[in-house]
Structure prediction request, 295 residues.
Amino acid sequence: MSAVATSPGAVARPKPPGFLSRLFRTKPLGAAGGVVFLIFLFCGIFADVLAPYGMNEISPINRLKPPSLEYPFGTDNLGRDMLSRCLYGAQLSVIIGLSAATLATVVSVVIGILTGYLGGKTDMVTQRVVDAWMSFPDLIILIVVVSVLGPGMPQIIGTLGLLLGIAGSRIIRSAVVSVRENMYVHAAQSIGAGTRRILLRHILPNILPPIIVLFTTRVGAVILAESGLSFLGLGVPPPAPTWGGMLSGAGRTYMFQGPWLALAPGLCLTVVVYATNVFGDALRDLLDPRLRGSR
Prediction:
């Protein structure tokens, strides 16, 4: 006889697929975007090792050379290797994108959790301030702040973090408003749990999916905004290479003599931002129960 008796009507349920399995099976485009995003992070972190030349290593004899085996992305008007400059530009984009997205997510979580859970006059006053903040064009605020404080990495990170964080608090607030009406929150309130414990133990863990999605989408938005500022001459000052600065400088001046000067940073920017956005959309569809569909 078998050592373990099974009931006649028992049916073994198949093990549910893991998150990565569902991502690659149901969202192949989002999975590809995630892979590109990881490659982008790897290139940005290890740009010092991967770059074949220095970011400002000048070789006048090799100026405006087309793409070749020696220079896969060609050279610019000063003879600098475009591949190396794009890799160092990815390093700056990684630092600015992740730092500003983290700051924006923290600001959104703090404002969204407090106003969504407390409600009442606190919620009404705070949301009217958020409405007034969102009524101003983002680019105009960025240009004004950077013009007053001067171009630089800390100014860009702080401005983009606050700009996107205050606007993104709406998303977190809506998630908190739906979570706070659940029975486990009312049960915690009925046994006398403090506000801090309820927020950290019951509210925050249940709104992690929208927080993760908000962070991934903010990374692409920050990279695009920083490139726009660099294109206007208000980003990270030279000689640091940025994708927007390369498009605005030699890329625009020598576009007809060397099209690769504009194509190389432009394609890097397009691929990374698109991959980040589709990866964030895939995460949203997988982590939000309302968007999964029926099994």
Observations:
- The longest helix spans residues 82-118.
- The chain has one domain: 40-290.
- The two ends are 38 Å apart (CA to CA).
